[in-house]
Amino acid sequence: MKKSIFYTVIMSSLIFVACSKTDTAPAPPPPPDPCLGVTITPVASVTHTTTGLTQGTVTVSSPIGSGITYSINGINFQASVNFYNLGAGNYTLTVKDSSGCSGTSPVVIKGYGPTFFQVRTLINGYCGPCHLNGTVNGGKNFDVDSDVVNSWDRIKARAVDGIPTFMPEGGQLTALDKQKIVDWINAGHQITN
Q1: Boundaries of domain holding 135
Q2: Residue 12 falls within a domain, yes or no?
Q3: Segment 84-101, tens digit of pLDDT
């Protein structure tokens, strides 16, 4: 009697396992990707810094608008298009929209020597209409730092000595600004000075 009960239990278990139903309905399709076909290309301007200091800035100019956030480390996002107090180095600017779509661009903040930083600041402030952003007047364009370094003597002649005439157009530099150029030249007129 004990044997038949035991066989019946085993047989019932096997039939249950063999006859159990599994759900074969297909899984629902994944939701559509909201970023499919979306391209975000960050555009920003930078100001450089003196080596060892944190004077650099990044300002995003595109895209901007409601619901867009910005990061320079891919972790901390903010609504402001401005990043301040940055040291020299390589950064990755990430722009993310309200759907979570994002794009990145590399950003480099250069570390200049202290006297070159002052001269570069002067050039960016006074020479823009004639010698920056692709403009080449008098055969000089100062978009690239090496062009500033290679033109040290021309910068001194025009901005400090007034030979053949003073630059920038519209008025001479102040004595203090002229001294910044002289100090850079006397230090060796390099980017690292």
Answers
A1: 113-186
A2: no
A3: 999 999 999 999 999 999
Q: Spell out the SS3 assignment of the chain.
A: CHHHHHHHHHHHHHHHHHHCCCCCCCCCCCCCCCCCCCCCCCEEEEECEECCCCCEEEEEEECCCCCCEEECCCCCCECCCEEEEECCEEEEEEEECCCCCEEEEEEEECEECHHHHHHHHHHHHHCHHHHCCCCCECCECCCCHHHHHHCHHHHHHHHHHCCCCCCCCCCCCCHHHHHHHHHHHHCCCCCCC
- For 18-30, the pLDDT digits (tens) are 455 566 788 888 8
- Please give the tally of structural domains in the chain: 2
Same domain flag for 107 and 132 = no
Joined together, the tokens standing for residue 138 give 């008098």
The structure tokens listed for 79 are 């609504």
Q: pLDDT by residue (tens digit) across 149-191? A: 999 999 999 999 999 999 998 889 999 999 999 999 999 999 9
81 plus 107 within the same structural domain:
yes
CB atoms within 10 A of CB 124: 13
CATH code of 73's domain: 2.60.40
The reply to whether 138 falls in a domain is yes
